[in-house]
Each structure stands twice: as C-alpha cells, then as structure tokens.
Amino acid sequence: MNKISNTEAELVFTANIDKGWHLYSQDIPEGGPIPTTFHIEKGMGFFLTGTVTEPKATEVFDKQFDMKVKYFSTKVEFRQKVRVVSTKPVEVKGYVEYMCCDDEQCLPPNEVPFTFKLEPSK
Fold it and tell me: Which residues make beta-bridge pairs with 91?
C-alpha cells in the first residue's frame, strides 16, 4: 500500500507469475478465459476512487480461445486508489478472482482474499 496523502492511499496488488505461465488482464472479451477481477466489499469509513488500474498487457491471438487476449507474465501490479473518510482505522476487504494458463493448459479459476488496514484521516 502506498500512502498518497492524509486521506488517500493506493492499494497495490502484486502477482508473481511462474515462468511459462500467464495471468489474464481485466480486459478480456466474453467467451475467453476468466479475466482478473477484483471484488471489493463495501465498507464504512472509505470509498474507492476510480477503478482498479493495470499496466499495458501483452496482447496476442490465443489458439486455445480462438481470440485476441491480454495477459501478463513474470510479475504485474494492479492498483486501486481509496479515500479514507473515517477518524478510526478501517479495513478494505475482498478477493481477487483470476485464471492462469501456459501454452498447453489452464488452471481452474482461483480466488484469493485480501485485507488492507488503513489509518484514519487527520
């Protein structure tokens, strides 16, 4: 997590990807692999600023899905800005859903929970 100001933070979601595998972008056409999706619970004391951002992904035609797809290899960071409006500490909770494939196979979609603890605004 990066603190931007007394009232704003940037949540950083880092994925380390094994050699030969790739993790799909959030921007995947319907009928393709499962896109990376962030499910953030609504909570008291904060609100999201914008949407989860990602760096430029590799875009290729994937024969397995018969379409162009965007993916990441090795490592990627997704980011979400949050504004804290509480005088007490708050938690941002949720889970990320993703799918990984190599050149021959895909693993079933997976969900990983996350929690970020944010200090109150001053």
Answer: 117
What DSSP character marks residue 100? E
- Residue 79 near residue 53, CB atoms below 8 Å: yes
Tokens of 49: 């600023």
Report the SS3 class of residue 94. Answer: strand
- Please, are residues 93 and 113 in contact by the beta-carbon 8 Å criterion? yes
Neighbours of 106 (CB within 10 A): 16
What are the DSSP calls for 34-48, one per residue? Answer: PPPEEEE---TTEEE
**Residue type at 37 in one-letter notation:** T
Tens-place pLDDT, residues 32-50: 999 999 999 998 899 999 9
